[in-house]
Amino acid sequence: MLSPAQLEQARRRRSLPSLKQQYQEYLLQRIESYKESVARGELLAFGDEAVIELQAGAAGQFILTEMLLWETVDRLITKRLGLPSYKKWREHYVGLRQSQREPGHWGIDSASALVALLPRLEVEDNVLVIGAGAHAEACVLAAFDTVVTFADGDRWVVENLEARLDGEALSGRFCAYVASLGEWLPPFERELDLVVIDAGTLASLSHALRQSLLIELRNITREGGVHVLLPGDSSAAPEGYLSHYPDWDRETLGPSRKGKASRSRGVIVARPSCP
Q1: I want to staple 166 with a disulfide (CB 3.0 to 4.6 A). Which of 45, 127, 171, 220 is the partner?
Q2: 266: CB partners within 8 A, 6+ apart
Q3: What is the topology classification, in CATH, of domain 104-270?
Q4: What are the average pLDDT values for consecutive 10-residue runs of the chain, which has 275 residues?
């Protein structure tokens, strides 16, 4: 996550994976999703078919290994699913990814505070999204190749978001958890660069759980990291939770293209860096 000053320099510390790497990731996602969706017997049938094919074409020229077997199974599944060649995928991918990075693709208001942050995102930024009311924001953040973790207390919300991102080929760097907010969050290998919080979800928690959650989120955010509090699908006002950030810096939002907003656009606060 770039600071406003770093954004002016227009530098990226990390580069995107090559298109061929992204294509291989796309194939892997589709193949693994298929394996998880079929019965064990059907998957074993692919294994039998792979053995027959390899034995027929080997003519004793190589030893049948487990790795070779599963590579053949993956190829058979690719054929069964009708997955596109690299050339066809590339032609489709460029336009698709561009549309996925448009907030309107996910129904996000262009005046949202998060939209103002999108140009500052970096590839593989570590992002946590909290609450059902921020599900669309989790999607657009995944489209920017950040590492997105989503947490909510409702299993239905989590499973539907997983299915949506899988259908958009965006699940490669995405993980979702059913979490008891305020009591448990998944572990993170490194500090968070960005946290997006649905104010409606905060409002649904008891005072004790809400306070515990926000304390933990502040503690696992790196210096210079950013929290965005959004109204989500509720009438909850994100500004009402600014008291939990007494020593953080609130960022000023630019004027809305629509003029005066009829509801909160959200708030952005940044953890100060030590001098």
Answers
A1: 171
A2: 112, 113, 114, 228, 229, 230, 231, 238
A3: Rossmann fold (3.40.50)
A4: 53 59 83 84 80 67 68 86 85 80 92 92 92 95 93 95 87 89 93 96 95 96 95 85 94 70 84 82
